[in-house]
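To illustrate the input format used throughout this study, we show a single complete record. The first block contains the structure-token representation of the backbone; no residue identities are included at this stage. The design step must infer an amino acid for every position from geometry alone.
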């Protein structure tokens, strides 16, 4: 089954529970991508650069592995019990996704695609996933993290370059978000990401989460996103879920 077929099947299955509207713009050749003699994308080519010489992270990425299992996460005992309860609840109406609410770091979900748009002073990430109608902004214009941020779903992100690696720090989350696996986020959660494009079609992404209310020590894991060529994001809208919620149950 092709990637396009897999995505359409996934959207159709999710649509049984989360009514969605999506459009198609698939199989259009990605401009500027290196190709072999037979026209196939050559993802082993050199890393593209921006006019100022920085690695260009732009493109649609996905299929980068998955988050470690819950048993391998250094959680505080009380948080682990809550995370296990959440992960074992198959029809949990209190989960953000069931209420069409955002969730952070959707790029660690194996079937999710996301588009990085890199400009001078700002990197934008657009997501293709239920519960993620919001773009994520990463400011690279030298501004500091806010000292007393108003809590939000996606937090506040600033980035800086160290050689060929973009280091992104994010704080200012609310206490309603979750990362896959059911791990809750709090207002003291800090996330540090290291994006490194290793060639035209591959990237290393290291993620570290710190939170004294959640973890016994910083939690670091690695992903390997791959560039998705000749494809586009599908529009996904989660709506009218209140008709379904009344048939769902809370944590078991």
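Output of the design step:
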């Amino acid at each position: 089954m092709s990637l396009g077929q897999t995505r359409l099947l996934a959207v159709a299955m999710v649509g049984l529970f989360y009514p969605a509207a999506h459009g198609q713009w698939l199989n259009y050749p990605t401009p500027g991508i290196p190709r072999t003699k037979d026209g196939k994308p050559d993802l082993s080519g050199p890393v593209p650069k921006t006019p100022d010489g920085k690695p260009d992270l732009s493109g649609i990425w996905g299929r980068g592995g998955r988050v470690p299992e819950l048993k391998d996460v250094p959680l505080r005992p009380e948080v682990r019990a809550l995370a296990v309860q959440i992960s074992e609840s198959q029809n949990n109406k209190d989960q953000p996704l069931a209420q069409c609410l955002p969730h952070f770091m959707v790029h660690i979900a194996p079937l999710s695609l996301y588009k990085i748009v890199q400009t001078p002073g700002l990197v934008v990430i657009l997501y293709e996933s239920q519960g993620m109608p919001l773009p994520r902004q990463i400011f690279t214009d030298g501004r500091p993290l806010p000292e007393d941020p108003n809590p939000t779903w996606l937090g506040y992100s600033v980035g800086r370059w160290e050689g060929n690696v973009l280091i992104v720090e994010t704080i200012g989350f609310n206490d309603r978000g979750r990362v896959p696996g059911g791990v809750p986020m709090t207002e003291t959660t800090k996330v540090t990401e290291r994006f490194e494009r290793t060639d035209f079609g591959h990237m290393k992404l290291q993620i570290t989460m710190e939170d004294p209310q959640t973890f016994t020590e910083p939690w670091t894991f690695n992903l390997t996103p791959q560039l998705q060529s000749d494809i586009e994001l599908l529009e996904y809208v989660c709506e009218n879920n209140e008709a379904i919620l009344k048939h769902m149950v809370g944590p078991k």
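Structural context for interpreting the output: The chain has a mean pLDDT of 81. The two ends are 35 Å apart (CA to CA).
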